Amino acid sequence: MRRISLWAGMALAVAVLTGCPPTYPKCNNDDNCKEKGEVCVQGQCQECAEDANCREGFTCQANKCAPKPPECTTDTACGAGRICEAGKCAEAQCKDDSACNGGKCQAGRCQAPKDTCTAATDCGEGQDCQGGRCVTADASSRCDFAPVRFGFNESTLDSSAQSRLGDLAACIKASQGKITLGGHADDRGTEEYNLQLSNRRAAAVKRYLTDLGVPSNRLTTVGYGENRPVSNGATEEAWAENRRVEFQR
């Protein structure tokens, strides 16, 4: 019995000297939280302590990684001489008409003259932009219903997407039938967040098309989140393919 007590006393002394690791979510250092992919913040395992602990496109807020908000949503958020392009502030395209090659400078953007165009949005109702000229849209022409792509964690339309939707709006107005706008996201982030993101992407496309004159009652939106990928790879190219809004007729 005396020998057993001696060993037990030694074991207790070693445990006291070395220290037992705290029970999650308590911690002494980052190593105690590593298994959960977290860091130690004031004795508690947390998702992050600073932005560097979060993946690209996210920021640390109240020890949780949250998506970075867009820099801007309207031109007024960017100040004088700047405009909002794809969620980021940029220098205005023009200050006066002299920078627009015969077009008009409006709110820092060049607008094509009435008899020329760069996209269908430059033309009147029932017209399309062909060869730099506004012509009567052919109702039987085939619309380009290729998916609209989005940047990582973005639901705003970049200039390329806006140009495509400008052409598509004229084609839709010259045709018949209803269209469902299906939003999608890649598989990074939680399923709930990706579902919300896919809905915002579909809503952004609908809003842009209706602003160009497409009747709202011809467009419906649905978000599929990350559940209908077109590419199952874990690469930037595959993720880019899955960040999209599709047109279903």
UniProtKB/TrEMBL annotation:
Primary localization: membrane
NCBIfam families registered for this protein in UniProt: Myxo_Cys_RPT
SUPFAM superfamilies: OmpA-like (SSF103088)
Name of the protein in question: OmpA family protein
UniProt keyword NAD present: no
Subcellular location: Cell outer membrane
Entry GO terms, CC: cell outer membrane
Organism of this sequence: Corallococcus llansteffanensis
Annotated PROSITE patterns: OMPA_2, PROKAR_LIPOPROTEIN
InterPro entries: Bact_OuterMem_StrucFunc (IPR050330), Myxo_Cys_rpt (IPR026435), OMP_bac (IPR006664), OmpA-like (IPR006665), OmpA-like_sf (IPR036737)
Keywords assigned: Cell outer membrane, Membrane
Keyword Membrane part of the UniProt annotation: yes
OmpA-like domain segment(s): 137-249
